[in-house]
Amino acid sequence: MIMIWLTSCSETKQVTGTEKPNIIVILADDLGYGDLGVYNDESKILTSHLDDLAKSGIRFTNAHSPSSVCTPTRYGILTGRFAWRTDLKKSVLWAWDKPLIEEDRETLPKMLKKRGYNTANIGKWHLGWRWKDKDGNYINDTIPIGNYGLKGRNDLYQFIDFSKTIDGGPMEAGFDYYFGDDVPNFAPYVFIENNKIIADLDTLKPGSMYGGPGPMSSGWDLTKVMPTITKKSVEYIEDQAQEENPFFLYFALTAPHTPIAPTKDFIGKSKAGLYGDFVTEVDWTVGQIIDALNRTGQLDNTIVVFTSDNGSPQRDGEKMGGKTGSVKKYGHDPSRPFKGMKADIWEGGHRVPCIVSWPSKISSGQVSSQLFGLNDLMATFTALTESSDKSSQYEDSQDFSDVWLNKETSPVRQNLVHHSIQGMFAISEGPWKYIEGKGSGGWSGNPDEKSGFTLPEGQLYNLETDIAEQNNIYDQHPEIVEKLSATLKMYRKQGYSNPNMKK
């Protein structure tokens, strides 16, 4: 039986015409464009709640994560700035890395707090912390971020005093409340509330459990992570129904990222193996959020954005184990109709599902092909809660509020920069996509080089006629390559891509 929580609230908010909207951003982890039925008519996964959410508002078909991997996307969403402008030029933050968001950086929760919002982050963080030793010194201040092979990294926990507060996390980034497990496959394996762990780390992760080595609380169960953070989010929504101020909830899911850990209620619910079952649990979670908003009278005046931090790795792993195989063996393609997967510079790495619902303001049943980046949420929410003038201050974020409110049909963005796990750049403009390099830019590198053929120095695709990026026409259009290459170099050199940027 599927889990249902039927808690209720005795009081609900009475929405007025001038009330600022509540905002919920639900960020799935490693969910592919082709996982949702509303995006893929051949999907082997039932996603009825997400399909209904798409029908209630706008479904974007050309939305992109700021990166094809986790940490840089989360930085881009919360700051409106590409993470490759920081010290993280490729890859992600690894276990025990220091914070990526600068202390003085304006963030989405900081901005909304100035406008009277209560703010919360529930779920995955993966943007770094400052861990203290017994003397209160930070153990990771001098460690280079993003260096997976750093000698001694996995032993750093031995120098940490876990009884002390953890700095540099969601609270310092502007959230009033945090609850989550940071990263499910990194130590410490424990829930964190605000800036303290909430259970004793009295054992070490067994080798049979998925994830990196390190301390764990007894009884830690990977299958309980999603239900726990879902319940916490529902409770937060119910609590906010009693408050006068609007709220912002950044609900960062841990699914369907490995460890593939659906609860027993969802095993066998899809036709795409355990990965598909975990996506089914994601759909259930979204249903719980919508139900809580509806029960508390907040649904009509709440903006709900559902999206993913990057494409799917297309894996179907043994439950909580490290062995993985392709989910495509079930006839399900999480990237359909695109080439590539998570980490890649190809579309499957960064083109993501993106649904925006706001029943009182956004017309239902819309489908938009506008080029949209998740880094645009910063400027859009700024405009919706104050004025569009303020939205021009973010380096790589542009205001889509008029598109959401059906006041604008012409393109907002002229182009958009993409980035892969290996630091490869690409830029889309009109029908064209220029990639500054060979191969995928991801885990697979450039397998075509082994074929013996001489490849062009870069890649150029016409996405209007070749959405699957099968025909590299780099050598056929040198004028387009030159133009897009120059634009990309300009954006990197000048420090911003927003044409409305006020310096």
Give a brief description.
One of its GO terms (molecular function) is metal ion binding. The chain is α/β, with parallel strands linked by helices and 503 residues long.
Break the fold down into its secondary structure elements and pairings.
Blueprint: E1 22-29, H1 48-56, E2 58-60, E3 63-64, H2 70-79, H3 108-114, E4 118-124, E5 177-182, E6 192-193, E7 196-197, E8 203-204, E9 215-216, H4 225-240, E10 247-256, H5 273-295, E11 302-308, E12 315-317, E13 324-326, H6 347-350, E14 354-357, E15 366-368, E16 372-373, H7 377-385, H8 401-404, E17 415-419, E18 425-429, E19 432-435, E20 459-462, H9 478-494
Parallel strand pairs: 1-10, 1-11, 2-15, 3-16, 4-5, 4-10
Antiparallel strand pairs: 2-14, 5-6, 6-7, 8-9, 11-14, 12-13, 17-18, 18-19, 19-20
Helix pairs in contact: 4-5
What this model shows, in words?
- The chain has two domains: 22-409, Alkaline Phosphatase, subunit A (3-Layer(aba) Sandwich); 416-494, Arylsulfatase, C-terminal domain (2-Layer Sandwich), CATH 3.30.1120.10.
- Residues 6-17 have low confidence and may be disordered.
- 20% of the residues lie in helices and 17% in strands.
- The protein is α/β, with parallel strands linked by helices and 503 residues long.
- The chain has nine helices and 20 strands.
- It has a ten-stranded mixed sheet, with helices on both faces.
- Helix 4 (225-240) runs parallel beside helix 5.
- The protein is globular and about 60 Å long.
- Belongs to the sulfatase family.
- Residues 21-385 form the Sulfatase N-terminal domain.
- Keywords: Calcium, Hydrolase, Metal-binding.
